[in-house]
Amino acid sequence: MHLTDTDPALVARTIKDLASESSFTLNAYWLAVVGDRKDYAARLAPLLALPKMPVLIVKERFDNANSIMNDLAIILEQNRAAVIAAFRHDGAAPECLGVVLLARSELAVAVGSSPVLWPEWVPGVGGTEVPCRIIDITRRINVPLDEVGANTGKLNRALYAVEGALIRRMVVVTDQVPGAHQRLFEVIGRRSDVAWADFLAKARSAHTNIPSSESYRPSVRVGDSVVSRLWDLAQAGSAKEVDRATTGLAEALHLASTDALQGWHECLFGALARGHDASQNGPGKFARSALFTISASCQYITCAAHAHEYPQLPLNLITSVVDDLYGGLANIESCLNRMPRKDLR
Hints:
Layout: H1 8-21, E1 26-32, H2 37-44, E2 55-57, H3 68-78, H4 80-87, E3 97-103, E4 113-117, E5 129-136, E6 142-143, H5 153-176, H6 182-188, H7 196-208, H8 226-236, H9 239-252, H10 268-272, H11 282-305, E7 313-314, H12 315-338
Parallel strand pairs: 1-3, 1-5, 2-3
Antiparallel strand pairs: 4-5, 6-7
């Protein structure tokens, strides 16, 4: 995954929220930046004009908890002009001040709060000791689940592609091995289903009529897709039903050997959902991983569609989750599309 820096607007919003809740005289907000820090500082500083905060580039090590406040005093000294310009307010002594520290990596030590001695030249309070807090905000830039920067829309596209690949594969297998679907259909079938072939036909029609892959959202209630049935089973099925579905999915896809799974790798959600049977073979492992990767992806895009009902979470966490799910779905689709289509009996 290519690392990029967080949108300065999101950083500024986070800092302002933290500053409004702080009771410390001095607050230092530490942020790890991958790209050009001078350029990033130039983009961030104007967003922190009210109240104005100096955005400083860290050159000291800040790796010893016993001297970290001294390191802070040094960087203030190195940036005296910027600090004075930011802190002076009608000649009055500052009451609650903030600085932003741009570093190359996250803060190396765990620091809460400590007293710090203001340099003598700080207007109004020079030479006095005040309570200070240093907080690493690199992993605290909270955003909603549908944050544009996390590119959650690619999960919709990937699920649409996986649905198409599942339908194509199951149609091919059903034509050549008519009973391969039986075990799976026993656990995902509904009373409204006339037969397996009828279910696949309806799923294919529903998939074809989706206006845009960007807006694709499977529905458990409607249940007109393979992925929605798998999602429902993973969410509400018993452990035994999940085990039967795993075996059934491998059979319905005719995963006779690991040769058909060349290039497949297990993503996080598949790995976390592994059963107690550590000796599970390749086809079984693929089927179980696919079941839970699909389920987690469906759940995520549904939550994202109602993001206002859910808490905001760290951007880097959301981005990593979306990337992992997307990679898992893309890999499942690729494997399904490469599976042999002839002589399956």
